[in-house]
Design brief:
The chain is an alpha/beta fold and 624 residues long. The chain has 15 helices and 24 strands.
């Protein structure tokens, strides 16, 4: 067990007049699974980089562990994904990469495509596999769920539950609850560390906020009451002093000693009241600093008599002249809030872009109502440049309305005057959301709108959607958000590039292997018989497992079917063309096959100079 000790940490960005952190002191145990939360722009990523020593600061940070930061930087994005993994985790073997990749339920083909051609979710998966294989350093994981489909999030939950300790930045409430046991909260004026998951922290935060708001109201009333009492006492004392020497009508003399005594007593009383009032004011000044305002966002949909807005029938997106998703049919009626769900790389964003009129290849039919006004939030923020005033002018947005919307989302006046390029990813995403929300439109199309968005703003958006009921088509992976706002969900599934029969197997003509090739190392079965252009075939046979040999249970068939089985367990590899993949039950999805069944493993192989491998499929054939 090690600790990271933070003492009197003070930090401000160059040119900033205010400190982001000021005299923050706390400690972290490296066995804790820590969720780091806070509004966008509060310094979560900055804090991680301070731990890494990338910024100069005042105070002291003491640590005795090595740190790794996620996401990793990818310098050459033209390289294949598997090469990127090899550079980040140089000790990882191919079979280990394939094992982790399979656990994320990702297509093997994506490993052999350039990183820059992968979807956002596939790129995150590449970096996650690199993270899993890199080593056992203490992990600083910065928003890993952005772009990730729900299945991969579940796999990431499983992985993080097995880790000993880490710091995790995430705005996904369900995800945080599943993996963390402590919370680091960056508040408006402090940093606090609290035991528990996000829900327990939120419950405590709401209780504390309610207490402070109640105390604030109580002190406001008390201060007002004390002000009135002090004023009355002061007025009485002043009047008494004036009357010490004579009465107003008779000018008769009065007891000056008595009146002076009473006047002095009232002055002392006024002083006591004043002291109490100052103490109450001081107490009130210490309240509400960390209570965030949750202003209501307003969406104004454009009225229309047209219905439905969109009709799609047997729609399939094409990539390189191949359909990448199974056919889907749907309608978007006025008032619908439809979420398109599915694995990364299955074409969800492409469907949104198709509706926007971009040049996306597809089959099927798509009809859209004429004169349809669409407001769009893109997945990427890369095009954002300049300052917010220029952005509002170029997009024909009312500047005052736009500024008010951003203020409700947590923007400060200082940020309003800054450059968008210098903002955090969460703040950039808020710019796109504020633009869309301030626009009146028939249909709102949002592509992963909640990437990088803090939890408070997510709740604001949820409430605005439920209140103003815009017609909405979106891609989003935050399960809690979808449960609250979506009226329908469309599940997009990947199209098989080889058709399967009713039993789930591929019907093909199989040619026997005629060659046993050891040129690639320990033993790799290859065939010079091609059943279809681009395919090669290998056999695996399910045998009775040997209880004394944990690697038994599968054997390769080599040559024709009459040759001897491979009896050497060292040769029990998962077959891959020009690739050695060690036997591992975690990456054999067919281990429960009946005894006596032969499986044909097929690689749909594009013949490239690098001999990279493409999608792998399995067919079944009963041996004679």
């Amino acid at each position: 067990m090690s600790q990271i000790q933070v003492s009197n940490l003070t930090f401000a960005y160059d040119g900033s007049s205010t400190n982001l952190f000021e005299n923050a002191t706390f400690h972290l145990d490296t066995d804790w699974k820590l969720g780091l939360i806070g509004r966008n722009g509060k310094g979560k990523t900055t804090f991680l980089k301070l731990l890494l020593g990338q910024y100069a600061y005042q105070g002291k940070i003491t640590k005795s562990v090595d740190l790794d930061y996620f996401p990793f930087s990818v310098e050459n994005q033209a390289k294949m994904a598997i090469e990127i993994i090899g550079e980040i985790a140089p000790l990882a073997e191919d079979w280990e990469i394939l094992k982790e990749w399979n656990l994320l339920q990702a297509d093997v083909e994506a490993l052999y495509r350039p990183f820059e051609q992968l979807s956002g979710g596939e790129q995150v998966k590449v970096l996650l596999v690199s993270l899993f294989l890199k080593g056992n350093n203490f992990l600083l994981i910065d928003e890993p769920t952005n772009h990730l489909d729900q299945e991969t999030r579940k796999s990431l939950v499983t992985y993080l539950r097995q880790k000993k300790g880490f710091v995790l930045v995430s705005h996904d409430r369900t995800f945080l609850d599943q993996v963390v046991d402590h919370i680091i909260a960056i508040n408006n004026t402090s940093i606090e560390v609290q035991k528990g998951n996000f829900s327990s922290w939120q419950e405590n935060k709401e209780r504390q906020d309610h207490f402070e708001q109640t105390q604030n109201e109580k002190l406001q009333k008390q201060i007002k009451k004390l002000e009135n009492a002090a004023k009355s006492a002061e007025n009485w004392s002043n009047q008494a002093e004036k009357s010490k020497y004579k009465t107003q009508d008779t000018e008769s003399m009065i007891d000056r000693g008595y009146v002076g005594h009473k006047s002095a007593k009232m002055m002392r009383k006024a002083k006591v009241i004043e002291d109490r009032m100052e103490k109450s004011i001081e107490q009130k000044a210490n309240l509400l600093h960390n209570v965030d305002r949750q202003d209501t966002l307003k969406i104004i949909p454009m009225e229309s008599k047209k219905n439905p807005f969109v009709v799609a029938n047997q729609l399939q997106i094409q990539y390189n002249k191949k359909e990448i998703n199974k056919p889907i049919s749907f309608e978007i009626q006025k008032g619908d809030r439809i979420a398109i769900t599915g694995k990364n790389g299955v074409g969800k964003s492409s469907i949104l872009k198709l509706l926007l009129g971009e040049g996306i290849s597809y089959t099927g039919t798509l009809q859209m109502a004429g004169g349809l006004s669409i407001s769009y939030v893109s997945q990427s923020t890369e095009e954002l440049k300049g300052n917010l005033k220029t952005f509002a002018r170029e997009n024909k947005i009312d500047e005052s309305v736009f500024k008010a919307m951003l203020a409700k989302m947590g923007f400060s006046n200082q940020e309003w005057n800054g450059n968008i390029q210098d903002m955090s990813e969460g703040q950039k995403k808020k710019v796109l959301l504020a633009k869309s929300i301030t626009q009146t439109a028939h249909l709102y199309i949002w592509d992963e709108p909640l990437n990088y968005i803090d939890i408070l703003t997510r709740v604001q958006i949820e409430e605005a959607i439920l209140k103003y009921k815009p017609t909405l088509l979106l891609v989003e992976h935050d399960d809690m958000f979808l449960q609250k706002v979506a009226t329908k969900q469309i599940q997009l599934e990947k199209e098989d590039s080889m058709k399967r029969n009713e039993n789930g197997f591929i019907d093909i003509e199989v040619k026997p292997l005629i060659k046993w090739d050891k040129s690639n190392g320990e033993g790799c079965i290859a065939s010079d018989k091609i059943t279809k252009e681009g395919w090669k075939v290998g056999y695996m046979y399910r045998e009775e497992p040997n209880p004394n040999n944990p690697d038994s249970g599968w054997r390769f068939l080599k040559g024709d079917e009459n040759e001897e089985y491979m009896n050497n367990p060292a040769n029990h590899h998962v077959f891959a063309i020009n690739t050695i993949c060690n036997y591992d039950p975690d990456i054999l999805p067919y281990l429960d096959a009946p005894i006596g069944t032969a499986y044909i493993r097929i690689s749909e192989h594009e013949f490239r100079e690098d001999n990279g491998e493409a999608p792998i499929y399995f067919a079944k054939q009963e041996l004679e």
